[in-house]
Amino acid sequence: MTGGDLPANPLSAEEALRWVYEQHERVALVASFQAESSVLIDLACQIIERPEVITLDTGRLPEETHELIEEFRARYPIRLRVVQPDAAEVEAMTAKHGTNLFRQSVDLRLKCCDVRKSRPLERVLSGYDAWITGLRRQQSSTRAATQQVASDPQHGGITKVAPLVEWTKEQVWEYIREHDVPAHPLYAFGYTSIGCAPCTRATAPGEAERAGRWWWEVDGVKECGLHWRPSEATA
Ligand code: SF4
Fold first, then answer.
1. Parallel, antiparallel, or unpaired: how do β-strands 52-56 and 79-83 relate?
2. For 131-171, what is each residue's pLDDT tens digit?
3. Which tens digit of pLDDT belongs to each residue from 88-110?
4. How close is the Cα of 76 to the center of ligand 1, in Å?
5. In whole angstroms, what is the distance from residue 14 CA to residue 40 CA?
6. What is the SS3 assignment for 106?
7. 112 is a catalytic site residue
8. How many angstroms separate the Cα of 184 from the Cα of each of 38, 56, 68?
9. If we measure between CA atoms, which residue out of 131, 217, 167, 159 comes closest to residue 3?
10. What is the distance between the alpha carbons of residues 102 and 217, in angstroms, rounded to a whole number?
């Protein structure tokens, strides 16, 4: 079943989740296990039984992320799918460019993100009618125009829903505190956005929320390709 007409934006986060689960048969909540994922999993479990949660295990995640994934698995009634990159693609990439190719150039960093994140997500989403993501407009300029509900041409035109698109960072943390939801432990060490271990550092006060991602790239776009492609760059 597909979603048919898209609802008028904006909806509350709960309304957006209810709509996507009511209108689509196969729905994937794609979680990176950052703070937004924590909120979405908690909300989804109040709306449907055993929501399907997909996470991408790039092979380079911090150990703390794996520990948090296990905490969620123990605490929430979710059907968790841990998706890996294609082993042959990773082997070919690292044989040619080394394991830390992302330090060599932006192109090689994007290649690593493509092999370890974007391609696995494309493969797995081909089996779904809709996916849910924790994008918020405030996270970065590349996310400022994100629609709460839209058709996703990058993934075969399935529905993409960002229930928290209008939420501020403060709202996310207020929800986590009020509902006693597990949160990624690296936030306590100054991280404001968390991805793969070698490509993420803590940020200093006043730095942009995603400044700790690929911090060595001068004027680099702080995106891996899951939600944004270079062709979408604006002047
Ligand atoms: Fe590779 Fe870094 Fe992208 Fe992870 S964030 S997929 S390690 S380039």
1. parallel
2. 999 999 988 777 888 889 999 999 999 999 999 999 999 99
3. 999 999 999 999 999 999 999 99
4. 28
5. 9
6. helix
7. no
8. 8, 16, 6
9. 159
10. 10
Higher pLDDT, 16 or 3: 16
Instruction: Give the integer Cα–Cα distance in Å for 207 and 209.
Output: 6
**Bond into 10 cis (ω within 30):** yes
Q: Is 112 in the pocket of ligand 1 (CB under 6 A)?
A: yes
DSSP bridge pairs for 159: 130, 151
Specify the ligand 1 atom closest to the Cα of 110.
8
Q: Are 135 and 143 in contact (CB under 8 A)?
A: yes
Query: Rounded mean pLDDT of 30-35?
Result: 96
Q: What is the pLDDT of residue 89?
A: 98
Looking at residue 104, the DSSP 8-state letter turns out to be T
Token reading at 199: 């490509």
Q: Are the beta carbons of 139 and 223 closer than 8 angstroms?
A: no
Ligand 1 binding pocket mutation candidate from 199, 214, 216, 222 (most atoms within 8 A of CB): 199
The count of other CB atoms within 10 Å of the CB of residue 167 is 19
